[in-house]
């Protein structure tokens, strides 16, 4: 059995892995895992990833969790162009720096913004206190400013003059609040120009394909009671 990727393109890290593999012509078998149906909690999926999260990779008898680890595994195994994860010590360190920062900064605020603005009220039928949403959007704005000032600066891409895995991780995060109607790029011309460069490097068709599902989430019908109960414990943390 060849490479298998367990993904749900509603997940921003899954989108990063999907775009990276497709853009670099890496052959893989897509194994869909529907998060909103709780399929990641199944016993069958736990055999692939005991953490019960996507993305997950299976390469023969080898399994791997965590999106950053998967991206780096693919970049090394398939010897993709160097700019994705540079060999140069300091250029590589810049990519690593962003990947280390984003987990508790941009990732957190983008996920909360999407769920509080759209998923809780529309999909789960739960109203979010206005002050909670306002605080989340303020934190998102702070993280966007850091993305511009600390990482992007006057460069073409997050970690330097060329696109890297850092850019894929960043852009897929930002499309989460965009799908909920947040005007992430409207008043940020530097960020908007960066998005256009990333889309051009990835290819507009692939970019749109990867984000088609999340951009349609707003049209989902309300969750049935069984799904609500299944998701309740795992998503309540997004209200904090």
TrEMBL record:
<comment type="similarity">
    <text>Belongs to the GST superfamily. Theta family.</text>
</comment>
<dbReference type="InterPro" id="IPR004045">
    <property type="entry name" value="Glutathione_S-Trfase_N"/>
</dbReference>
<dbReference type="InterPro" id="IPR010987">
    <property type="entry name" value="Glutathione-S-Trfase_C-like"/>
</dbReference>
<dbReference type="GO" id="GO:0004364">
    <property type="term" value="F:glutathione transferase activity"/>
</dbReference>
<dbReference type="InterPro" id="IPR051369">
    <property type="entry name" value="GST_Theta"/>
</dbReference>
<dbReference type="InterPro" id="IPR004046">
    <property type="entry name" value="GST_C"/>
</dbReference>
<dbReference type="InterPro" id="IPR040075">
    <property type="entry name" value="GST_N_Theta"/>
</dbReference>
<feature type="domain" description="GST C-terminal">
    <location>
        <begin position="88"/>
        <end position="222"/>
    </location>
</feature>
<keyword id="KW-0963">Cytoplasm</keyword>
<dbReference type="InterPro" id="IPR036249">
    <property type="entry name" value="Thioredoxin-like_sf"/>
</dbReference>
<feature type="domain" description="GST N-terminal">
    <location>
        <begin position="1"/>
        <end position="82"/>
    </location>
</feature>
<dbReference type="GO" id="GO:0006749">
    <property type="term" value="P:glutathione metabolic process"/>
</dbReference>
<dbReference type="Pfam" id="PF02798">
    <property type="entry name" value="GST_N"/>
</dbReference>
<dbReference type="Pfam" id="PF00043">
    <property type="entry name" value="GST_C"/>
</dbReference>
<keyword id="KW-0808">Transferase</keyword>
<protein>
    <recommendedName>
        <fullName>glutathione transferase</fullName>
        <ecNumber>2.5.1.18</ecNumber>
    </recommendedName>
</protein>
<dbReference type="InterPro" id="IPR036282">
    <property type="entry name" value="Glutathione-S-Trfase_C_sf"/>
</dbReference>
<dbReference type="GO" id="GO:0005737">
    <property type="term" value="C:cytoplasm"/>
</dbReference>
<dbReference type="InterPro" id="IPR040079">
    <property type="entry name" value="Glutathione_S-Trfase"/>
</dbReference>
<dbReference type="InterPro" id="IPR040077">
    <property type="entry name" value="GST_C_Theta"/>
</dbReference>
<comment type="subunit">
    <text>Homodimer.</text>
</comment>
């Amino acid at each position: 059995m060849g490479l298998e990727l367990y993904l749900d393109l509603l997940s921003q890290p899954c989108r990063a892995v999907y775009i990276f593999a497709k853009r670099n012509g890496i052959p893989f078998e897509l194994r869909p895992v529907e998060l909103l149906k709780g399929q990641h909690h199944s016993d069958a999926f736990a055999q692939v990833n005991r953490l019960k999260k996507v993305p997950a990779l299976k390469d023969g008898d080898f399994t791997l969790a965590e999106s950053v680890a998967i991206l780096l595994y693919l970049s090394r195994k398939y010897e993709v162009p160097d700019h994705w994860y540079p060999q140069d010590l300091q250029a590589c360190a810049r990519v690593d720096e962003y990947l280390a920062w984003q987990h508790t900064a941009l990732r957190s605020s983008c996920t909360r913004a999407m769920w509080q603005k759209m998923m809780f009220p529309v999909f789960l039928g739960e109203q979010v206190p206005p002050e909670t949403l306002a605080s989340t959007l303020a934190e998102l704005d702070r993280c966007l400013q850091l993305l511009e000032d600390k990482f992007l600066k006057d460069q073409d891409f997050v970690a330097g003059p060329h696109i890297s895995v850092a850019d894929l991780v960043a852009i897929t995060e930002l499309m989460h609040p965009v799908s909920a109607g947040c005007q992430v790029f409207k008043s940020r011309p530097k960020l908007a120009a960066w998005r256009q460069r990333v889309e051009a490097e990835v290819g507009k068709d692939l970019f749109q394909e990867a984000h088609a599902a999340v951009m349609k989430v707003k049209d989902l019908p309300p969750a049935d009671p069984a799904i609500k109960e299944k998701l309740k414990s795992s998503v309540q943390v997004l209200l904090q």
